[in-house]
User: Which sequence fits this backbone?
């Protein structure tokens, strides 16, 4: 089993970087060639992507829905505690299943990963 960590930094709707990192994550989980142990860590403005109650009438995608699919596929999602606090994001504001994490969590995930993608 391959262990992959995606560390996302980009704002949720200002660019398509977070959207594309979630597309990659979904594609990794959907492929059948080999088992993937995938983890997702959100830093900087990416922490806004895991907020609940998103409404995106002008876009063809909704990040909340993409996160919820990954959570249903047992992908752990953590948001950087320092980044979340600096932006006023609390655990109560996040979608069910996503959590606040620490740099120690990121460090453990990084050391355990076979591949780390920073997007």
Assistant:
């Amino acid at each position: 089993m391959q262990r992959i960590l995606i560390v996302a930094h980009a704002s949720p709707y200002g660019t398509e970087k977070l959207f594309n990192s979630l597309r990659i994550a979904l594609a990794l989980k959907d492929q059948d060639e080999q088992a993937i142990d995938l983890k997702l860590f959100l830093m900087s403005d990416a922490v806004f992507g895991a907020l609940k109650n998103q409404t995106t009438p002008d876009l063809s995608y909704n990040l909340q829905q993409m996160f919820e699919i990954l959570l249903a596929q047992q992908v752990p999602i953590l948001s950087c505690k320092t980044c979340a606090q600096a932006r006023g994001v609390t655990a109560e504001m996040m979608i069910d299943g996503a959590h606040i994490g620490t740099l120690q969590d990121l460090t453990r995930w990084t050391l355990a990963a076979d591949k780390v993608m920073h997007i």
Remarks:
- Residues 17-30 form the longest helix (14 residues).
